[in-house]
Amino acid sequence: MTSILLVDDHDDIRDVVTRHLQKHGFTVATATNGVEAVLAVAQSAPSLILMDINMPELDGIEATMQIRSTDPEVRIPVIALTAYALPDDEARAMAAGCDAFHPKPIDFDRLREQIRTLIS
Questions:
Q1: Cβ atoms 66, 39 nearer than 8 A
Q2: Where are the 4-aspartylphosphate residues found in this chain (predicted)?
Q3: How would you write the pLDDT of the chain (120 residues) with one tens digit per residue?
Q4: Which of 31, 51, 52, 57 lies in disulfide reach of 37, CB 3.0 to 4.6 Å?
């Protein structure tokens, strides 16, 4: 079963996305900020990470860079989720090591397609 780490500082977004992904057969763990995300990945590597970009304590860009730097041999796909959907924001996310970019509000059909593509 595909395990997804969903990282977002908003309770309502975590709840909606978690329910949707579970309904489609994914196992979902959550983190509320980048610090929790880095720790969660170190403890149990998920199949894929959905990473909000704008969060307190440690943002998604820095968290992705830290995850990428811990073990270059392990490449967990990361999809950046953000309300900031300008071209510069996407370029920043990709430069940090994200594999895909998904603007909010979330298009769940497109998100599931991105997940399937990255984990296949």
A1: no
A2: 52
A3: 799 999 999 999 999 999 999 999 999 999 999 999 999 999 999 999 999 999 989 999 999 999 999 877 778 999 999 887 777 889 999 999 999 999 999 999 999 999 999 998
A4: 31
